[in-house]
Automatic annotation (TrEMBL):
It catalyses: 2-oxoglutaramate + H2O = 2-oxoglutarate + NH4(+); 2-oxosuccinamate + H2O = oxaloacetate + NH4(+). CDD domains: nit. PANTHER family: NITRILASE-RELATED, OMEGA-AMIDASE NIT2. Belongs to the carbon-nitrogen hydrolase superfamily. NIT1/NIT2 family. GO terms for biological process: asparagine metabolic process; glutamine metabolic process; oxaloacetate metabolic process. The gene is Nit2. GO terms for molecular function: omega-amidase activity. The lineage of its organism: Eukaryota, Metazoa, Chordata, Craniata, Vertebrata. This is omega-amidase. PROSITE patterns: CN_HYDROLASE. It comes from Pluvianellus socialis (Magellanic plover). Its EC number is 3.5.1.3. Keywords: Hydrolase. Pfam families: CN_hydrolase. GO terms for cellular component: mitochondrion.
């Protein structure tokens, strides 16, 4: 099946972001994409100072638009971090997924909050405004099961291993790595998660805006289960496409059968919730 990643240029105007995102979703569908993903924070600037101002309920304005365009195009739409979600007085970094009938299939709240301090380069603390999610998020398609994470979640190998154990063959991480961590770890982490679990891994970033308070790395990417980069964007706004070949995935797992060779008598990863 064809996967499309929309590397969107995000402005400070929510309505403009939504309109442009939906237009690019329609374009991707017209080019044969069956699963389409938007980047983390596609409808608002990324930064703790923006989260409360742009927050919405789920369902709400942004998710309603995503539901409508998914139904219109008859696709599976992964809504990036569609919005900062407000629920019960708390804010979450939330990704919603909609099916071809417009129904919401999954809602992933970012499990691992991005609290880092690299002296002289970048300091960021999502936990100043956001609360963490407490669950794994998977959804079924006629093609394969898909597991979701958001940005910093990709650094935690255990999460990807659980998705692999549960039968996911594609992991999608909307993310917004920065100009420090992006060149160092963005592709490395994707290739690691793909090879470790013999799955496809897709990451979808906002386009780079040098004038933004937080500058995203860009370079949305798809990696196959052999660890090969099979599609990669630059820094600008674009849509990239790739065909997900599940026969190739099956061949790789047959050739190097690590899933059946794990020593579960010596170690293990478990999903607690």
């Amino acid at each position: 099946f064809r996967l499309a990643l929309i590397q969107l240029h995000v402005s400070a105007v929510k309505s403009d972001n939504l309109q442009r995102a939906c237009g690019l979703v329609r374009e991707a569908s017209a080019k044969g994409a069956k699963v389409v993903a938007l980047p983390e924070c596609f409808n608002s600037p990324y930064g703790t100072q923006y989260f409360k101002e742009y927050a919405e309920k789920v369902p709400g304005e942004s998710t309603q638009k995503l539901s409508e365009v998914a139904r219109e195009c008859s696709i599976y739409l992964i809504g990036g971090r569609s919005i900062p979600e407000e629920d019960g007085g708390k804010l979450y970094n939330t990704c919603t997924v909609f099916g071809p009938d417009g129904a919401m299939l999954a809602k992933h709240r970012k499990v691992h909050l991005f609290d880092i301090n690299i002296p002289g380069k970048i300091q960021f603390k999502e936990s100043e405004t956001l609360s963490p999610g407490n669950s794994f998020s998977m959804f079924d398609t006629p093609y394969c099961k898909v597991g979701l994470g958001i940005c910093y979640d990709i650094r935690f190998a255990e999460m990807a291993q659980v998705y692999g154990q549960k039968g996911c063959q594609l992991l999608v991480y909307p993310g917004a790595f920065n100009l420090t961590t992006g060149p160092a770890h963005w592709e490395l982490l994707q290739r690691g998660r793909a090879v470790d679990n013999q799955v496809y891994v897709a990451t979808v970033s906002p386009a780079r805006d040098e004038k933004a308070s937080y500058v995203a790395w860009g370079h949305s990417t798809v990696v196959n289960p052999w660890g090969e980069v099979i599609a990669k964007a630059g820094a600008e706004e674009t849509v990239i496409y790739t065909d997900i070949d599940l026969n190739k995935l099956a061949e790789i797992r047959q050739q190097i059968p690590i899933l059946s060779q794990k020593r579960c008598d010596l170690y293990g990863i478990e999903m607690k919730k």
